[in-house]
Amino acid sequence: MTAAELIAQFTDGMKATTGPEYIAVVTGIASVWFSKRENILVYPVGLINTTIYIWLSYQGQLFGEATVNLYYTVMSIYGWWQWSRRTTSQEHVLHIRFSDARWWRYQLLFFAGMYLLLYFILLQVQQGFAPGAIPWADALASASAFTGMWLMTRKKVESWYWWLLTNTVSIPLYFSKQYVFTSVYYFILLLLAVAGLRAWRQKARTPLYAHGSP
C-alpha cells in the first residue's frame, strides 16, 4: 500500500466513524487515564467502552476482540469490587505491587493458554463462516488483553506490559477492518500505557506500597 492509499484509507475511515465508536473511544481513553491515576472510576467508565466494543468487534468479524471485551465487562465488575475493598481501618486492601516469580509464572502460563485456545477457535471460525478473520493477530491482541485486565484487577505493575502488547497489535488490526478512529484510539492508549507503566512503577517503589495484599 502506497502512502497516498494509506492516507486515503485513513480519511475515508474517519468519515465513516459512527457515533457509538466515538463514544467508545472517548470512554476508553478516560478509563485508561483513570487507571493510570489509580482511580476507581476506571471501571464504571470502562464498562461503557467495553459494551460498545463488543458490538463493534462482532460487526467487524473480530470475534477474539468481541470475546475479550465481554471478558473486560465481567472483569470490570470484579475489579470494581477488588479496588473497593478496605480493611477495618478503612485502608485499601490492594496496593500497586510488582509481580514476584510466582505471579510471573501465572501470567505467562495464562497468556500462553489463552493464546492457543483463542487461535484455534478463531481458525475454525475463519474456515467456517468468517473468512475476514485474522486468527493469529486477533488471538495475540486478545490473549494479552485478557492477561493485562486480570493483572490490573490485582494492581500488578506488569499489567501495563500486556497493555503495551495489546495496543501495539490492535493498531494495525483495527485499521485493516476500516475502524480507523479505533486504530488511532489504540495509538493513544499505547502512549497512555507508557505513562501508566511509569506511574505504577514509581508508586510500587514508594513506602506506602511496601505492604498490602500480594
Keywords for this structure?
single chain; 214 residues; mainly alpha; 8 helices; globular; disordered C terminus
Q: Short description, anyone?
A:
The chain is mostly helical and 214 residues long. Helix content is 75%, strand content 0%. Helix 5 packs antiparallel against helix 6 (135-153) and helix 7 runs antiparallel to helix 8.
How would you describe this protein?
This protein is 75% helix and 0% strand. The chain is mostly helical and 214 residues long. It has one domain. The radius of gyration is 18 Å and the shape is globular.
**What is the number of domains?**
1
Q: How many runs of DSSP E, i.e. beta strands? A: 0
What is the general shape?
Answer: globular
Distance between the termini: 48 Å
> C-alpha Rg, in Å?
18 Å
| Main β sheet profile | none
Helix content: over 70%
Low-confidence stretches: 209-214
| H/E topology pattern | HHHHHHHH
**β-sheet strand percentage:** under 5%
Overall SS class: mainly alpha
**Mean of pLDDT:** 87
Question: How many DSSP H or I helices?
Answer: 8
Any chance you could write out the topology, listing elements then pairs?
Elements: H1 3-15, H2 19-36, H3 42-59, H4 63-84, H5 101-128, H6 135-153, H7 159-176, H8 180-204
